[in-house]
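User:
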Amino acid sequence: MPLELGFDEDSGILEFPLTFEDEESPRLDQRVAPALEVIRANAENEAITSILIHPNEARYKLSAEQDILEQLPPGVVATDMLSFARFWRARDRLKWTVIPAQTRLTVRLMVTTEEEAAGLTFKFQHLIKTVDENATLGADGRQLVLRSLKAGESISVEIQYAE
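Assistant: Predicted structure:
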């Protein structure tokens, strides 16, 4: 979010819109199937889904939350707001660059983080053949996931592209 109305300076506050809100009609427990379809579509677009569930009327809201969590599409991870916020703050403060190496098929990803971070993912246009021990290669061959990083840590990842 911008600081004040000038839009010249960043406030440091990250804002994530709600996808679902438990107080809307019909009741949340009656919207589980449509909610799961939206969650699936968001996941396909690599978008987040956020659900606000107030602690009142716990009986049917808890049931709806359990149904949603038990039926999440493959690869979709549920988390609490504190973990979510910490991930996005760490991601926002991450500094990185890609440096060409000695051969045209090799590059080095240099990463520095101010905060502890896990699950940071980089997506490349080129198909990747191998990465070193600081990352794991995604199933599609174009993504890599960094190992968990400590606050203030700097690492490099050697990446070899496929021919």
